[in-house]
Design a protein that fits this description.
Radius of gyration: 20 Å
Distance between the termini: 46 Å
Helix content: 25-40%
Number of strands: 20
Structural class: alpha+beta
Strand order of the largest sheet: 14-13-10-6-5-18-19-20
Strand content: 25-35%
Number of helices: 12
């Protein structure tokens, strides 16, 4: 018997996250494993008078491309992808990998070349995201691969997903709106502040935020959501930080990442595991060594790390930072072919000061 929460999920995405209206065009991008949610969103979109199309992708095509393609082919951009980003009103990307380690054996330089080739798509996306002309969202359908990464059974991981997305609530939208109001109070308090100082074991980092805008992530762009983020001042990040959760990027896992910054740039980078991949990604381009994002995780339905960035970066009581591409609507100017989020859990002995005032202690907000 179908889980009624899937239909609820589709309705929330179509109505709340994507804000579909009659006549809107929607591109749903997903692998076959996500078919139940694809059907639910497709049905909900039609009920709202929208025009949905579905772009199904086979799970091993990226692996084939990265192994078999020439550099010219890796950098080629599909005109269909460009059309969707330029012309559609909304896009939904449903993640549903059946093997999260499929790209482990790929030459990292191939991944860098592929990322560099998509710079034009990143620019279109950044422009439309900044001017609010594109409604987009990303969500995740539970698979055995994600459950194994999280050291859970599929049943337990599925419940973890529903809990983090507030889909067990009678009215998930009301819960997301309440979280949004809670976060907006903190975003308003941060307005006009100049510096964030994060301290924790292995971490003593100062991040400039003067003149920057924090964005309230309330379940529209990411699903689940639950963060507020900004683009830090590019040359005002100093000190060191140790990321306590595994750093996942492009199908690779890097453990025990520690970065030292001087005047906004990474000047030392070490990893307990995955050093070569970390070094290669930092060499992607000039912007890869600077922060494009600084954020607070505020979804306390995400109670633990799962080795999946969509959930881990929302971990209640954490901060995360992304190397590379920034979000222009925050006032950030850093550009890069990468955007790599890394998480620092502050629930055990961490503090955050903002302009000398205590903002967070042991993962709990005090402002």
């Amino acid at each position: 018997m179908a889980d009624p929460r899937v239909a609820r999920w589709g309705e929330v995405l179509a109505r709340y996250s994507l804000g579909l209206q009659p006549g809107h065009t929607l591109a749903i991008q997903a692998p076959p494993a996500a078919a139940p949610l694809v059907r639910a969103v497709y049905r909900a979109a039609l009920r709202l008078g929208a025009h949905p199309i579905v772009q199904l992708s086979l799970p091993d095509l990226n692996e084939i491309l990265l192994k078999a393609a020439s550099d010219e082919q890796l950098q080629w951009v599909s005109p269909l992808e460009t059309l969707v980003l330029e012309r559609f009103d909304a896009t939904l990307n449903i993640l549903a990998q059946t093997n999260t380690r499929a790209l482990t054996g790929i030459d990292p330089q191939k991944q860098v070349t592929f990322s560099q080739g998509r710079a034009s798509l990143n620019q279109i996306f950044a422009r439309r995201n900044a001017d609010d002309s594109l409604n987009w969202s990303v969500t995740l359908w539970p698979t055995n691969a994600y459950a194994q990464d999280a050291d859970m059974s599929l049943a337990d991981f599925t419940e973890f997903v529903y809990s983090a997305c507030f889909l067990n609530e009678d009215d998930p939208v009301a819960r997301w709106q309440a979280l949004g109001r809670d976060q907006q109070r903190r975003v308003d308090w941060l307005r006009g502040k100049r510096e964030v100082h994060v301290r924790a074991p292995g971490t003593d980092l100062r991040v400039g935020i003067a003149g920057r805008t924090f964005i309230n992530g309330d379940g529209k762009r990411n699903f689940p959501d639950g963060e507020f983020f900004t683009g830090p001042v590019e040359d005002q990040v100093d000190g060191e930080i140790t990321f306590t959760l595994p750093a996942i990027y492009a199908g690779r896992t890097v453990e025990g990442v520690r970065l030292r910054f001087a005047q906004g740039q990474v000047v030392e980078a070490t990893a307990a595991q995955g050093q070569a991949f970390l070094d290669r990604m930092l060499a992607t381009d000039a912007g890869a060594r600077r922060l494009g994002e600084f954020a607070f995780g505020n979804n306390f339905g995400v109670t633990r790390g799962s080795k999946n960035i969509l959930f881990d970066e929302k971990l209640g009581g954490s901060v995360h930072m992304a190397l590379g591409q920034t979000y222009p609507q925050t006032g950030g100017t850093n550009t890069s072919a990468i955007h790599w989020d890394m998480i620092c859990d502050l629930r055990q002995g961490g503090t955050v000061m903002v302009d000398g005032a205590l903002f967070m202690q042991n993962g709990q907000f005090v402002i």
